[in-house]
Amino acid sequence: MKVYTLLFICLISTFLSSAQRDRVKAIIEPGANRIGEYLPLLKGKRIGIFANQTSTVADTHLVDTLRKVGVNIAVIFGPEHGFRGTADAGEKVGNYTDEKTGIPVVSLYGSKRRPSKDDLANVDVMVFDIQDVGVRFYTYISSLEEYIASAIENDKPLVLLDRPNPNGHYIDGPVLDKKFKSFVGMQAIPVVYGMTIGEYAKMLIGEKLLSGNAQDLLQKKSQTNFNLSVIPCRNYTHKSRYELPVRPSPNLPNIQSIYLYPSTCFFEGTVLSEGRGTSTPFQVFGHPSLPSTLYSFTPNPNEGAKNSKLYGQVCYGWDLSGTADEVYSKVDNCVQLKWLIEAYKLFPEKDKFFILPKSGNMEESFFNKLAGNNDLWRQIRDGKSEKEIRKSWQPGIAAFKIVRKKYLLYED
Predict the structure, then answer these.
(1) 307-348: per-residue pLDDT in tens?
(2) For residue 332, is it within any domain?
């Protein structure tokens, strides 16, 4: 009887271990978590790392993790919002020494956008590990492009630790016209492009999309130290629902904001508040001139949104907040224009809805930089339906999908 009891216990134990293994296998692991895959590339080398608060291995910052295993981090590079992720959107950040580690931090969102030769003088290998949200006007892919260019120009190998794209399950929005290229849109891609940063980096190189000297060097050199090593995520596909463990920037506090961001960020180019200065940025939007029967909110300065529109004024508009599932359903796998169209229809002074630049030329407006063209604002002004506007995007999206497919690392 004891033998059978022992056998039964062993079988139960085996079953539980198998179930636990399956559960662990299903957990999405960002590239940074797979230390064994990239540590050999860093050991004994001087490292320059482009990172921010999202650069974590489990609950520990990547910089701390690497230092604990003996990796020599010579310099840290910080993107928009800074290395610790506390600066406002668009706020210029200077160089400084990180108090916690004593490592010099060079800002790549201040006086320059890429590391210089002097910045990399004591660097053997460059590392990139920043969480993206899969939206063209979110500046981290522009930072990535500049970082790759610097690695090529300075003959340094680059290790990119890939991370899941929380908006990687669809492709939508107008494809950028290169005439409207800026740091909030550098390539002819849709607003939502359905690629991880690792896939996107491979496309930049494979399609020869880098500009100027970097592209020339990449094409002319037969022998170069530059090599892109992408450490892929484990258990991720483009169908995966992935909620970020750390907010990627001050005004994307949760997955709800991240899902809505491709649709509601267009309000940054209008006189409406996009919810900065509230607890639900990009989930609420409005203006004092809209009907007072609508949802009301009052934006005020807060950490990460010290300066923005309409602070201290009661705004009337829309509240799209809800559970993650509710917001996911509202977005419905596309860039939603209905809120923008409705807000324009209700706004009393339509000639003041879009923010004009100092030149007074709408073609140079920030809204056009977000849209990537001079068409969207005119389509809204002319009363085009969402269906009509979306139809105009389709040829560009179809062409992009063909290119994108060549560089996918994960099941679509």
Answers:
(1) 889 999 999 999 999 999 999 999 999 999 999 999 999 999
(2) yes
> Rounded to whole angstroms, how far apart are CA atoms 207 and 202?
8
Query: Integer distance in angstroms from the first to the last C-alpha of the chain?
Result: 53
167, 296: one domain: no
For the whole model, what pTM was predicted?
0.90
> Are both 170 and 302 inside the same structural domain?
no
Cα 405 to chain centroid distance, Å, stands at: 20
Q: Is the pLDDT of residue 3 over 50?
A: no
Q: Tokens representing 158?
A: 């680059």
Q: Give 220's pLDDT tier (boundaries 50, 70, 90).
A: confident
Check if the beta carbon of residue 126 is closer than 8 Å to that of residue 179: no
Instruction: Output 14 or 404, whichever has higher pLDDT.
Output: 404
Decide if 388 contacts 379 (C-beta within 8 A): yes
Structure-token pair, residue 230: 């992408």
Give per-residue burial for 194-219: e unless 16+ CB within 10 Å, then b: bbbbbbbbbbbbeeebbeeebbebbe
Pairing status of strand 56-57 against strand 60-61: antiparallel
Decide the pairing of beta strands 295-297 and 96-97. unpaired
Long-range contacts, 274-279 (Cβ 8 Å, 24+): 274/309, 275/251, 275/299, 276/89, 276/251, 276/305, 276/308, 276/309, 277/301, 277/302, 277/305, 277/308, 277/311, 279/253
Same domain as 194, residue 266: no
Q: Examine residue 403 and state whether it is found in any structural domain, yes or no.
A: no
189, 262: one domain: no
Pairing of β 104-107 and β 96-97: antiparallel
Structure tokens at 119: 């910045």
14-47 in b/e form (b: 16+ CB < 10 A) is eeeeeeeeeeeeeebbbbbbbbebbeeebeebbb
Q: Do 200 and 293 reside in the same domain of the chain?
A: no
Q: What is the secondary structure of 293-357 as a DSSP string? A: TSEEE----BTTBSS-TTTTS-EEEEE----HHHHHHHHTTS---HHHHHHHHH-S-GGGSBPPP
Amino acid at residue number 263? S
The total number of structural domains in the chain stands at: 2
Give burial (CB, 10 Å; 0-12/13-18/19+) of 275: buried
